[in-house]
Amino acid sequence: MHVNVKLYATLRQFAPKGTAIGESFSVELEAAEISEIIEKLGFPKDHARIIMVNGIRTFDLGQKLSEGDLVVFFPPVGGGVLSPD
């Protein structure tokens, strides 16, 4: 089974070479769960801070996926500068 995946910010380093910003790529799965995508791509689970499946946020790494689903991963948000008060 294949699902489409998009990786943003620091997670993009785990996308296939040549994948453009915002471009999805196909991942073949056997167990059809979100955790399998993370394992196949090789990034730490705690780096998948925001996960969306077909536009709906999920927190369940064991969520079952269907053929052609779009799974989007965002890492933890960080950085920025605080202005003095």
Strand pairing plus helix content: what structural class?
mainly beta
Shape: globular
- Helix count equals 1
* CATH level 3 topology: Ubiquitin-like (UB roll)
The number of strands is: 5
Secondary structure elements and their pairing?
Elements (H helix, E strand, L loop, with lengths): L1 E6 L17 E4 L5 H8 L8 E4 L2 E3 L11 E5 L11
Parallel strand pairs: 1-5
Antiparallel strand pairs: 1-2, 3-4, 3-5
Written account of the structure:
The chain is mainly beta. The protein contains 1 helix and 5 strands, in the order E-E-H-E-E-E. It has a single domain, classed as Beta-grasp domain (Ubiquitin-like (UB roll)). The chain is globular and about 30 Å long. The mean pLDDT is 92. Helix content is 9%, strand content 26%. A hairpin with a 2-residue loop joins strand 3 and strand 4. A 5-stranded mixed sheet has the order 2-1-5-3-4, with helices on one face.
List keywords for this structure.
mainly beta; single chain; 85 residues; 1 helix; 26% strand; Ubiquitin-like (UB roll)
What is this entry, summarized?
The chain is mainly beta and 85 residues long. The chain has 1 helix and 5 strands. It has a 5-stranded mixed sheet, with helices on one face.
